[in-house]
Design goal:
heterodimer; A: 247 residues; mainly alpha; MetI-like fold; two-stranded antiparallel ribbon; 2 strands; globular; B: 249 residues; alpha/beta; Rossmann fold; four-stranded antiparallel sheet; 9 helices; 10 strands; 37% helix; binds adenosine-5'-triphosphate; binds magnesium ion
């Protein structure tokens, strides 16, 4: 008996319907959903880290205007529901943008659902990252920065070789919490029809009538996804550990 | 000590005033340090000793007067501060090592990053410096794994790696227990004996008396009295110096 037959038998004999194993169509939808979740997670993580770094840099800079704008951005995105942010971008901002004309001559939105999901998630997690990196930078003792400057480092060299590496290590556990949260928050993209894991699973269970099984599969998949992320980050943390300190 | 070994003036401070807002922290400071000289600055807490060292190293700008380091005006706004800092090393009370780098990397970093020297050549020199401060077996240890005295000796080696003309020491033994204090004092004594120009702010009166060529006593932001240790410690001219020494000796 092949695996496919075994899972068909599981359904026929016991009513446990894991269609994603024996049904090629459901399997493909599920795999695509998983890959979409992976894409949303990885791209949004990368962008949110860039946003966090730029924001923290601006907060430490001299321009009052940029500092005020950064603070406003952080407060706005930190203190409103991410689902509403996403819907706002997709339904309120998107229609005002000029469309693109495709090969068939039709006007389509310049940025689609996936694009808006990435933008929205990146801004949301990025706002939190600004705070995380800022407090990390503040936790680096000014005496350490001064030691670098007294050795002839320029401000930029001191930042690159001393201040940032220390701030990053200090920020790492808070950053990881936020990134795990971001992975979970990608499910919001369901609301604007992005075919990620939740969307794909819902499509499967409404046709194959296996809500309970798909719920369990989905939960297990997120558990594994986040376990994978945590596993990678544990290695990073070990590699960056500073022996003899708490960080 | 004998003044015959002293060379040309290397630091010349004239009429320096330093304010923080309205508060005058240093006033009318005059000081000349010669090549190979060991200078000790003593005085009560808050008298401006650390501030003076920070001014010499261009970490704090002065409000009046002039500081020449090897003929270069530190206070010149057009001056590249980094050029001065490369000539003047400073060692702090709290060591301030880079905790994410090993002892060897701490010593190597600045010559590689700042002076763009060849890492292999720098490594050989860094290892020799660690040997000089008796820490060759701790090259791979991180600051967090070293005792205070060991960290302070790494900090001295880190400063020496830049081949400075002068090293400033700001109460470098104040945070150490008597045992480890001794290790660090031995290192400084050897440096001074090798002809390195040193300016030490210290509360170790016995040590100052032993190694200084010239002692400066500061109080309330001014230099009250200066001279060879025999004068300052045995026959102080100023009543404030006498009162301070009565308190600490
Ligand atoms: N950044 C600063 N802003 C304002 N005042 C300062 C600053 N740094 C130092 N001071 C003041 O300048 C005076 C001299 O300080 P400094 O640290 O030079 O004293 P010190 O002689 O090194 O004392 P200690 O022996 O305690 O180290 C003190 O009154 C201090 O409060
Ligand atoms: Mg001091």
């Amino acid at each position: 008996m092949t695996i496919v037959e075994a899972f068909k038998h599981l359904n026929d004999a016991y009513g446990i319907n894991l269609s994603i194993v024996y049904d090629p169509f459901d399997r493909e939808r599920f795999v695509h959903g998983f890959l979409m979740t992976l894409l949303l997670s990885i791209v949004s993580m990368a962008l949110s880290i860039v946003i966090g770094l730029v924001g923290a840099w601006l907060l430490g800079g001299r321009s009052r205007l940029l500092k005020g704008a950064t603070t406003g951005f952080v407060e706005a995105f930190r203190n409103t529901p991410p689902l509403i942010q996403l819907l706002f971008f997709f339904f309120a901002v998107s229609p005002f943008l000029p469309g693109a004309v495709n090969s068939a001559g039709q006007v389509t939105p310049l940025i689609g659902g996936v694009g808006w999901a990435i933008i929205s998630l990146s801004l949301y997690a990025g706002a939190l990252n600004v705070e995380i990196f800022r407090s990390g930078l503040e936790a680096v003792p000014s005496a350490t920065r001064e030691a670098a400057e007294s050795l002839g480092y320029t401000r930029l060299q001191a930042f690159r070789h001393v201040v940032f590496p220390l701030a990053f290590r200090i920020s790492l556990s808070a950053l990881n919490n936020n990134m795990v949260n971001l992975i979970k928050t990608t499910t919001l993209a369901y609301a604007i029809g992005v075919p990620e894991l939740l969307y794909a699973s819902a499509a499967i269970w409404s046709e194959s009538l296996n809500v309970r099984e798909m719920m369990l599969v989905m939960l297990a998949t997120y558990l594994l996804l986040i376990a994978g992320y945590t596993g990678i980050m544990n290695r990073v943390e070990r590699a960056l550990r500073m022996p003899g300190t708490d960080v | 000590m004998d003044h015959h070994k002293l060379g040309a003036p290397i630091i010349v401070i004239k009429g320096v005033e330093k304010r923080f807002g309205e508060t005058v922290v240093l006033r009318e400071i005059d000081m000349v340090v010669h090549r190979g000289e060991t200078v000790c600055i003593i005085g009560p807490s808050g008298s401006g000793k650390s501030t003076l060292l920070r001014c010499i190293n261009a970490l704090a700008p002065i409000n009046k007067g002039s500081i020449l380091v090897d003929g270069v005006e530190v206070n010149d706004p057009k001056l590249d501060k980094l050029a001065v800092r490369r000539k003047v090393g400073i060692v702090f009370q709290q060591y301030n090592l880079f905790p994410h780098k090993t002892a060897l990397q701490n010593v190597m970093m600045a010559p590689v990053t700042v002076l763009k020297q060849d890492p292999r050549e720098v490594e050989a020199r860094a290892r020799a410096l660690l040997k000089r401060v008796r820490l060759e077996d701790k090259a791979g240890s991180y600051p967090g794994e070293l005792s205070g005295g060991q960290q302070q000796r790494v900090a001295i080696a880190r400063s020496l790696a830049m081949n400075p003309l002068v090293i400033l020491f700001d109460e470098v033994t104040a945070a150490l227990d008597p045992e480890t204090k001794k290790e660090v004092l031995v290192t400084i004594r050897e440096l001074a004996a090798d002809g390195m120009t040193c300016i030490l702010v210290t509360h170790e009166m016995a040590f100052a008396r032993e190694i200084a060529d010239t002692v400066y006593f500061t109080d309330g932001g001014v230099i009250v009295e200066s001279g060879p240790p025999s004068q300052i410690f045995q026959a102080p001219q100023n009543p404030r110096t006498r009162a301070f020494l009565d308190l600490v000796l």
